């Protein structure tokens, strides 16, 4: 599960970078694929025209759809999906961008719903984070109690 979170975090940063690369020439896809492959050690396919990425890992496959540009870094409806390929460890995870929050405690932050299905159980976590990804919050229900955590990375 920890590996999934790390891979999804890497995908978030790489998705933001993909938006920046879209304005460049066709070789931007190849550069981005090479960067992903270098950072993850796994095969990657990037199609910026379709707004999608796919990374095949030892643990499974990650698919990203709805990749926006830097201006639309929190593109509502964009998704990251992870499908496990380990027979003894079936887990599927999905991040869905709900959009930028316009008011309240999380104003200006991107809201992402993270859903993981593992061993017949479904868990959901709501993430709220800044564009640079260095700060934010997550909320989840744990045994009937709402858990809220804030983070800051330097």
SSE blueprint and pairings:
Elements: H1 2-21, H2 27-40, E1 43-47, E2 52-56, E3 60-65, E4 79-84, E5 91-100, E6 110-118, E7 121-129, E8 135-142, E9 145-152
Antiparallel strand pairs: 1-2, 2-3, 3-4, 4-5, 5-6, 6-7, 7-8, 8-9
Helix pairs in contact: 1-2
Strand content: 35-45%
The parts where pLDDT drops under 50 for at least 5 residues are 1-10, 16-25
Strand adjacency order, main sheet = 1-2-3-4-5-6-7-8-9
N-to-C series of helices and strands: HHEEEEEEEEE
The backbone outline, from C-alpha atoms, is globular
Q: Can you count the helices?
A: 2
Arithmetic mean pLDDT: 78
- Mind describing the biggest β-sheet? 9 strands, antiparallel
Backbone structural class = alpha+beta
Output the radius of gyration.
16 Å
Q: Give the proportion of residues in helices.
A: 10-25%
Count of individual domains: 1
Distance between the termini: 24 Å
Beta strand count = 9
Please explain how this structure is put together:
The protein has 154 residues and is of the alpha+beta class. It has one domain (2-152). 22% of the residues lie in helices and 43% in strands. The chain is built from 2 helices and 9 strands. The chain has a 9-stranded antiparallel beta sheet. It is globular. The protein starts with a helix and ends with a strand. The model is unreliable at 1-10 and 16-25 (pLDDT under 50).
Keywords:
alpha+beta, nine-stranded antiparallel beta sheet, disordered N terminus, 22% helix, 154 residues
Summarize the structure.
With 154 residues, the chain is α+β, with helices and mostly antiparallel strands. It has two helices and nine strands.
């Amino acid at each position: 599960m920890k590996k999934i979170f790390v891979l999804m975090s890497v995908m978030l940063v790489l998705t933001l970078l993909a938006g920046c690369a879209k304005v460049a020439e066709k070789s931007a896809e190849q550069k981005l694929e090479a960067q992903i492959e270098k950072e993850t050690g796994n095969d990657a396919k990037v199609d910026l025209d379709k707004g999608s990425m796919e990374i095949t890992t030892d643990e499974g496959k990650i698919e990203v759809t709805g990749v926006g540009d830097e201006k639309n870094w929190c593109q509502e409806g964009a998704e990251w999906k992870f499908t496990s390929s380990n027979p003894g460890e079936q887990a599927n995870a999905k991040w869905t961008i709900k959009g930028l929050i316009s008011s309240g405690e999380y104003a200006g932050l991107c809201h992402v719903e993270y859903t993981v299905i593992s061993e017949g159980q479904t868990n959901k976590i709501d993430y709220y984070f800044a564009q640079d990804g260095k700060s934010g919050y997550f909320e989840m229900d744990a045994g009937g109690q709402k858990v809220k955590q804030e983070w800051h990375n330097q």
